[in-house]
């Protein structure tokens, strides 16, 4: 038997207290407690951000941090493609043919989709499309069509070395190999299969289970022949799978004819045996999408029996993962919307002031100011003016407010707060309200809004240097009540009333087009940086929103939703997407309701899983 030193290359350390973490298989003996400790492997599923389109039976490929999902059933056929970055889903290029029950393989930037079901006649598809991370291109060559058109099949391999196997109708044993331009026939599987799990490469693939009726048998492909190997433990159909012939994982699926009972079971494969994992999906489902490896997979969408958007990540690792989520925070004293707020990360030093409370027709603006110390909100000295719907920047001890409304009147007035009292700073060049701002008390930015000359929205930009205001180069799109975040020399403006989705990025001099919001909306909350931002809450016709999306400087992708839909929140997050705070706001209650509720967002975290070990 090999010793620990022979395997790891290190001796077990003797310590009197535990180190803060363990890495690279390192273990230690705690002489104080008399325990042998170190990182232990853990298998677990954790929730992630939902897809934007509920669907199942789609083409998939890629890894846990760079996957694609193309087409599928909604229940009608769709051509929509979504891309997963390990945190959320972003819009990709649509397939040329809307279809469901198709197969895929490859990577996010070199993907393949083939086969499927697409009414009207001929229904059963044999065409192939290639993805470059932006757009799908259909292979127009006759040899780009599979020799056996089918749906309910599986795929493995890459864009230039792909494998298609199984499918229906009738339930098939057919195998075909794709060389980057054409398909050629391979040797048939031993068992005809449809709605099963498949993964691996063109020369080393797995086909697991099938149904209905559901079976548990498994075959392995070596590039020439299929060979029966050990069966999975739970017979099922329409399950997901990922990995290789020596390190695989299958999960989910369903039973019944028609399929109508979702499974949560997960099984791992070591090249010989299947082992039921202690990790189970939170949501049992079938016809789900799958991508990744045998130790780091992602499962998404599927049916329960309704089509769903839920995404879960599987990890077999020495780390534990805590999913990103919104959680309830400490409520403010006065509920309102369109208030001003400043950022803090962690959210232990927030400032919230001004805003509007009451219902439409009897709304009242307020000058109330509240500070948060990480535990409680406490009222402070009121603002000099009763102000709402303006811009803000800075911190709890160095904040500025920029314009807004006093009653029904637009104002140019600006104020500063030093942590204990309010003062007046130079006014804006033009009275402006329904605007948003970002930056600091000495380098502030105000973008868009309404002014007397632009009642439907303005493109105007104003920059503050701590002493006065200067006009900057205008945005391309008039916008008001948009999301504005970042700093004066690297900012983002997205969305806005009129329900627009466009985004512009500012480099301190000019604005350029950026990635669009996933939902056209206004009255948004936001925080973060140009390449690492969050946008949350808001309003779109006809509803208030609980959604949250993240921006990476190129595109928006989904994040976990808030617990309460609302608009006009105060946003008190940090200068990255790791934390966010949605303060108060207007909820969907009829006719209106100013909530005092606060929600706090925390990004996914991981920690080494340290456990005690026994010796023998």
Plain-language structure description:
This protein is mostly beta strands. It has three domains: 4-40, no CATH class; 44-318, Kelch-type beta propeller (Neuraminidase), CATH 2.120.10; 338-603, Neuraminidase, CATH 2.120.10.80. 1% of the residues lie in helices and 42% in strands. The chain is built from one helix and 64 strands. The strands form 19 sheets. It has a four-stranded mixed beta sheet, with no helix packed on it. It has a four-stranded antiparallel beta sheet with strand order 4-31-30-29, with no helix packed on it. The longest helix has 5 residues, at 4-8.
Topology:
Layout: H1 4-8, E1 13-15, E2 28-30, E3 35-39, E4 42-48, E5 59-63, E6 66-70, E7 81-84, E8 89-91, E9 103-106, E10 111-114, E11 117-118, E12 123-124, E13 128-131, E14 136-138, E15 154-157, E16 162-165, E17 175-178, E18 183-186, E19 197-201, E20 204-210, E21 215-221, E22 226-229, E23 240-243, E24 248-251, E25 254-255, E26 261-262, E27 266-269, E28 274-276, E29 289-292, E30 296-300, E31 311-317, E32 319-322, E33 325-328, E34 340-341, E35 350-353, E36 356-357, E37 364-365, E38 369-372, E39 377-380, E40 391-395, E41 398-406, E42 409-417, E43 422-425, E44 436-439, E45 444-447, E46 461-464, E47 469-472, E48 483-487, E49 490-494, E50 503-506, E51 511-513, E52 525-529, E53 532-536, E54 539-540, E55 543-544, E56 548-551, E57 556-559, E58 570-571, E59 579-583, E60 586-587, E61 593-594, E62 598-602, E63 605-608, E64 610-613
